[in-house]
Design brief:
20 helices; alpha/beta; single chain; elongated; 494 residues
Amino acid sequence: MKADEFGDFQTPVTLTRQVCEILLNRGLAPAFVVEPTCGIGTFLLSALNRFPMAASGLGVEINPTYVDRLTASLHTSPHADKVRVITGSFFHTDWAALLGDAPEPILVIGNPPWVTNAQLGRLGSTNLPEKTNFQNHNGLDAITGKSNFDISESMLIKLLELLKGRTATLAMLCKTTVARKVLVHAWKNGISLADAEIHPIDATTFFDATVDACLLLCSLSPSGSNRDCRVYRHLGENQPSGVIGYHDGQLVANVAAYRRWKHLGGEEVYKWRSGVKHDCSKVMELQKERHGYRNGLGELVDLEDDYVYPMLKSSELASGNTKEPSRWMLVTQRAVGDNTNVIRMQAPRTWEYLQKHSEALDRRASSIYRKRPRYSVFGVGDYSFLPWKVAISGFYKRLQFITVGTFARKPIVLDDTAYFVACQTEQEAHYIASLLDSETAREFFSAFIFWDAKRPITIEVLRRLDLLALARELGSEDTMISLLEQRNPQGSTW
């Protein structure tokens, strides 16, 4: 069952009935049932069948073909006289007027589109919100794509805002990441939730979609003040497997772990860094051979050693294969913004190589390269070239910290999907790795890591941990203080 030009998936009746059964078991007794992007109305009809006491129902759908099918279905339904179906775009519907006099409790149920605003834009869809920065992204986040959002996120936030202060339940299928963003919006913006639940669904079975998806349940009440959400392992499971929440101004993945270990959060005494970003692997990543380096285009090239460093990718960190790097990286700068013209004099063969591939390097898509020296890279500084690092892959779903040293008498650099702290000595690196590998550190990080995310381990999560507080907890505070005194005699920002 594939998404059409409107970005929707029609929901199987078996799933809509299962969802309604969960709502019934929660004691729900709605007076008004709404399906905002109703398609052929499977959710709306299932809800009215399961809650026949509801006084009225409403469906809104942009696709007239679906509206015709729903209208035909209503002809044989006992609920036909109390259902209104409107043809229209979600974002151009006067929801305030439609919901204004609706009897309470209200049930808003459905399955809004699972596509992003960018995807719908490419499809030429008119079912798009106005282009506002409702997520309040700024700077680099807005430029590099974080302003791209799921259409359902915008829809669900709008519905929660409309239901604010009323007695209502929102029961929606959506991506799990969207569910969390919607909850955070409610918690941050004073939308009173009496209760919240996330129930995973098997999107592959129901929709032939490879994505983490869920049923999001939000109970709204004028007097609600709950900032936790129970999370279940399976749809309809009786006991939750955990609780997420919004505490101290942040989204927490494991409330119990957060409450136990939040005192370890604080100042970042060892600064976490990302690896080198170059966005042109076929030119900048090389394999060393007897007579030179071979690039990703299959060319054998002769380069000076000055700007070429052994490198490790995230996959190699995750596998623990770090002793003999199989690749080398051309690193054109020692710090962001360095003048790359010096390469012409210091390493003429390297400069000739860069000139030969200037077209590929000049068309790198990211806007971060604009108004920068030609052939620039990012994620470089003194820290990149220190002899020891404690590193972790951001792509793989496990907390595995690896000690990385040198190779061929050169520091090993990492790609931009890896994170690391830089160290001066092997002893220092092994000590930091031992702290990070402790069960205490793992439990602390578990309070913030959502393992179903595309990149669950982020630099923001790693930076939450105060390593000095962790050392104190583990009884080695003196060792950490000694290392910090040796490390930072002149205000180093490693």
